[in-house]
Amino acid sequence: MIKIAVDAMGGDYAPQEQVKGAVIALEKDQDLFVYLCGDKTAVETELAKYKYDKSRVEIVHTTEIITNEEEPAKAVKAKKDSSTVVAFRLVKEGKADGVVSSGSTGAALSCGVLILGRVRGISRPGLCPTLPNGKGGITLLCDCGANLECKPINLVHFALMGTAYAKAAYGIENPTVGLLNNGTEDHKGDLVHQEANMALKTTPGVNYAGNVEGREIMLGAVDIVVSDGYTGNIAMKSIEGTGKAVGMILKKEFKRNIFTKLGALIVSGIIGKIKHSLDYERCGGAMMLGLSKVVVKGHGNSKAKGFAVCISQAADAVRGNMIGRISDMLEEIRKAEEAAAQVAEAAQAAEQATEQAASETNA
Amino acid sequence: MIKIAVDAMGGDYAPQEQVKGAVIALEKDQDLFVYLCGDKTAVETELAKYKYDKSRVEIVHTTEIITNEEEPAKAVKAKKDSSTVVAFRLVKEGKADGVVSSGSTGAALSCGVLILGRVRGISRPGLCPTLPNGKGGITLLCDCGANLECKPINLVHFALMGTAYAKAAYGIENPTVGLLNNGTEDHKGDLVHQEANMALKTTPGVNYAGNVEGREIMLGAVDIVVSDGYTGNIAMKSIEGTGKAVGMILKKEFKRNIFTKLGALIVSGIIGKIKHSLDYERCGGAMMLGLSKVVVKGHGNSKAKGFAVCISQAADAVRGNMIGRISDMLEEIRKAEEAAAQVAEAAQAAEQATEQAASETNA
Asked: CA spacing 20 to 30 A to A104: which of A3, A7, A345, B88?
């Protein structure tokens, strides 16, 4: 049984949509157990609306809520009985395997770092949303805002963790990775991106496809796009805005007159499918990669269906051993580095021996 | 009469589409004259296909072409008789008022800097494309790739030049400017963006609306979005990719079966309008802001209609005195700085006088 701790009070429509989402996820996944962290009365009121397997739900009463307006780290330290902190604590204590919150991103990140801690060897966790792409599949984009500026090693870690995530939660066998850049050639980008590009070419376990441009994110050229958090954030939101703009134009054109309205009626099924294809919510939330446990951050405005996907995402990542895979990959890199160091040492020893032999011969 | 020099050999479909585009632009604008720089025979062959006002066209024969594969600055120096260099030279010599090329971006930038020179006071020219937005209007995005890294002053200059451009070429009276950032609050972004945000708040002549997120570009929240070239490039291409992805999904859904195909037929007029709304080509090319003359860079894959818009764009910018407006705004800033310095000096003098009076009184 996979156990997921749910922050039932985080989000614009909490706890209604969070509780409903949990019920949907439980219905879909018979091997799932959820802890609903939140105000007992409010959560019970919502739960009472649905039929669900009571043996797989436990309410954990909390008395506080962290809002988006609060300074995250401070709020996490001050509000020990907030739904967010309590949900993370359940994971820390080993009662739950993963946690889902659609509350404040900063608070979730703070809880992740302060309560759960990072995976050994990872200095910077990354925020990795799943985007729907033009091929009808998905593209992972990491980082989307957790780290404004990155070192090459951070970008390499995002690639590695994205790979582990794609394998564990989405069953992609050998996911391809691209580095977001302003061109595909090796000399593109600043020094950080140039170095990261070179390092990724030889990173064990990462199926690196080279630099990719912004347009490849939505065209689905690679499974995982790696970026610093600043650029990733702007790319993601630019994509989001374009989707909305297309929706605005669709609406305007179809509402123009009686004929276009009739047309809209006729193709409404198709338009629905197109909307679904581009719908962010169907792809769930953002995985926080680099923490010692599975943490999914849902959209603040998540509705039940979208929030249910977030819970499934977390359960799938646990089931697919995402964290173990990340550690294994880091270990593989460590071993490769060690082996390379040994080879270098042996080569140096051999050189010295040759030199000595030569000087002895000469003498 | 506005005179535009056209690089007739630059672009994937040159000279066919470039010549046809010039004919379209001439037809639309009776006050336009074009120099077509390119191989005389090739250009004449294309021109022979159309009816046009011969008194407003002059072919300037050139023997060389700069390709995308060449190192721009080198190519510009080596190929003195290339269509690109010759077109820029016509402007330098005062024969033409502006230039349009859909050849190599790097070559056009090099020609701009080496042959025309920058506007006094501008150190970094910016590439400013026009994007169609969800409101049915346009959004200018500067810089989109000319400068990988920027100082705050460069971002301020982009805002100023974008303002002059929006007024001159698009007749927007008091265009609003946003700074592309990973959030709207003043503390968002790195130091460069924080400083630029503060500086823009007091820049004379710039109607600054504050930080804007990626999604605002396509939603049309402001008229001009200012960015460093790296991020701007990735935002622009992310938007481009999303547009293409939507097209892929539309195609797939409408081609699914006989019923959806019928639906597509019924709403084909509407779909055509939606495509038109999102069409980059209808918005023309990117203005190279910061050069001493009007330079428009068209898409490499420009067809005639899109290229005609580029020519109109250049003519409109000349007609609206874009360069003069940029200089005037820089002068205004210089005066404001001078006035501020004088005030500071006067204040210091007054302070000294007061101190002296006080010490004399004490003595």
From this structure: A3
- DSSP-derived secondary structure letter, A78: H
For chain A, the first-to-last Cα distance in angstroms comes to 75
Q: Are A70 and A106 in contact (CB under 8 A)?
A: no
| A283/A275 Cα distance (integer angstroms) | 13
Residue A162 CA to its chain's centroid (Å): 8
Q: What is the DSSP string of A204-238?
A: TT-EEEEEE-THHHHHTSSSEEE--HHHHHHHHHH
ipTM: 0.88
Q: Which two tokens stand for residue A323?
A: 């964290």
Provide the greatest CA pair distance for chain B: 103
Q: What pLDDT, on a 0 to 100 scale, did the predictor assign at position B246?
A: 86
Q: Inspect the interface and report whether the beta carbons of B249 and A277 lie closer than 8 Å.
A: yes
Residue-level pLDDT at B122: 94
Integer Rg of chain B from CA? 24
Instruction: Round to whole Å and give the CA distance between B172 and B223.
Output: 9
Binning pLDDT at 50, 70 and 90, where does residue B114 land? very high
**CB-CB under 8 Å, B253 with A241:** no
Indicate the pTM of the whole model: 0.89
Distance from C-alpha of B267 to C-alpha of A35, rounded to nearest angstrom: 48
A218, A235, A245 ranked by CB distance to B245: nearest: A218
Q: How far apart are CA B132 and CA B242, in angstroms?
A: 13
